[in-house]
Amino acid sequence: MKTLFIHQNFPGQYKHIAPALAEMPGNQVLAIGQEGHLGRLRHRKVKEIGYPEPRGAGEKTHYYVRRLETAVRRGQAAARTCFDLQAKGYTPDVICCHPGWGDGLFLRDVWPDVPLLYFCEFYYNSQGGDSGFDPEFPYELNSRLATRIRNSHLLLSIETCDWGLAPTHWQHASFPKAFQDKISVIFDGVDTEVVKPNPDVAFELEDGRQLTRNDEVVTFVNRNLEPYRGYHVFMRALPEIMQRRPNAQFLIVGGREVSYGPAAPEGKTYADIYWDEVKDKVDASRVHFLGRIPYPTFLKLIQVSSLHVYLTYPFVLSWSMIEALSAGCLVLASATPPVEEVVRDGENGLLFDFFDTRQLAMRVDEALSNQDRLQPLREAARQTVLERYDLQNVCLPKQLDLVRCLAEGRRPDETPAPRPAVSAV
Predict the structure, then answer these.
(1) Which residue(s) pair with 94 in the sheet?
(2) Among 23, 179, 240, 302, which one is least packed by beta carbons within 10 Å?
(3) Pick from 117, 348, 333: which is nearest to 233 by CA?
(4) What distance in Å separates the CA atoms of residue 82 and residue 264, rounded to the nearest whole number?
């Protein structure tokens, strides 16, 4: 079977399934992504091909359609790369593509008969979800109208695909009902043999001090420190939390860019804006901004954590939260979708109102004061991941079956034809 993966930031969501397919006898795996974003997978059986970074929208392009123009340029670049492969005689049996940036717009025009499986991560809606959720960032009419157009390239892409894949039921439900019947719900998966509790872990701070499970450690992890992931709420709760917990150390992970939502005011970062609000009210020596850290360091961080705090708008669920559960963290999370799909208050974690900084501080205090009593929540958190989000035993087998099904020309809701057993990945 020949599988083609297309993702502007490859491997992205394909970091597990691409190598798994490549290791199976008789399979060929090829990946296409933007030049400069490739080379991180480093798998000897996965060949990667880059397309040039496309130009963005023109200065005179209407505000509403700038994302669409950028997506069209990216889709064109991806399609040209595919046409070059086609001219050399290459035709895949199935294509797995993330259409969120436009890469999937023209694939049906390159290979009309090849099954297309698209990763349906999120569909923007002008009401509900992330739009207008946070009153601190007014959702003006202009933005509401632009949101509807923002999905243009997704609609064009999904209309042509044979099947879709969404990581959570809530993200699945964000898509128009007309397409939901051809979107399966399968999470990306967590390698629970790697991401697991480690009572002997030690985390080294920049000054050389070692934190262990005997220390009181609060962790907060974002790709970037920004409002979409509740950084502003966490910062504003920090003075009261630190007053209540005079021995706690706070490890904050995240970059200073913007992944989602509006940009910070020119010349500023959200990381600095909200730290500046509270820095004179806290003991800065106990707050450790770690920036972006290597994955092995991240694992140690969540393994040493006494309490992992996670906030998000109603938006895409972060891998880091599921990984924290897998590591046996006690997780305190915002009661927002799709978090509530995973964390059940008082059963496998703790929840609080996203905007209630006082409640956040009180629940942090409660959690750190009752570590022994709440140990069953840690165990239940780990069990939740083993049962529903485990890579090798739950998610990856489902993903592989879905890819095989499409490659064989069947709809995933059809009864599969008998086939020889495949050795475990």
Answers:
(1) 3
(2) 23
(3) 333
(4) 37
* Same topology between domain 2-189+391-407 and domain 203-387: yes
d(CA 291, CA 254): 5
Look up the pTM and report it: 0.93
First to last CA, the chain: 15
| Spatial separation of the C-alpha atoms in residues 46 and 29, rounded to whole Å | 5
Q: Indicate the helix (H) or strand (E) that contains 299.
A: helix 295-304
* Token pair belonging to 291: 């920036």
Phi, psi of 123 (to 5 degrees): -120, 125
Structure letter (DSSP) for residue 54: P
Domain boundaries, the chain: 2-189+391-407, 203-387
d(CA 374, CA 320): 21
Neighbours of 131 (CB within 10 A): 18
Express each pLDDT in 79-133 by its tens digit. Answer: 999 999 999 999 999 999 999 999 999 999 999 999 999 999 999 998 878 999 9
Q: Which residue has the tokens 């450690």?
A: 217
| CA-based nearest residue to 245, from 136, 359, 129, 364 | 364
**Helix H or strand E segment including 403:** helix 396-407
Instruction: Find out whether 122 and 77 touch, Cβ atoms under 8 Å.
Output: no
Q: Residue written as tokens 């708008």?
A: 313
CA distance 201 to 413: 45
Pick the CATH number of 203-387 from 3.20.20.370, 2.40.340.10, 3.40.50.2000, 2.60.40.3710: 3.40.50.2000
H or E stretch covering 72: helix 66-87
Instruction: State the CATH class of domain 2-189+391-407.
Output: alpha beta
Nearest to 239 by CA among 284, 281, 289: 281
Is residue 7 exposed (0-12), middle (13-18) or buried (19+ Cβ within 10 Å)?
A: buried
- Note the pLDDT of residue 414: 63
3 state DSSP class of 18: helix
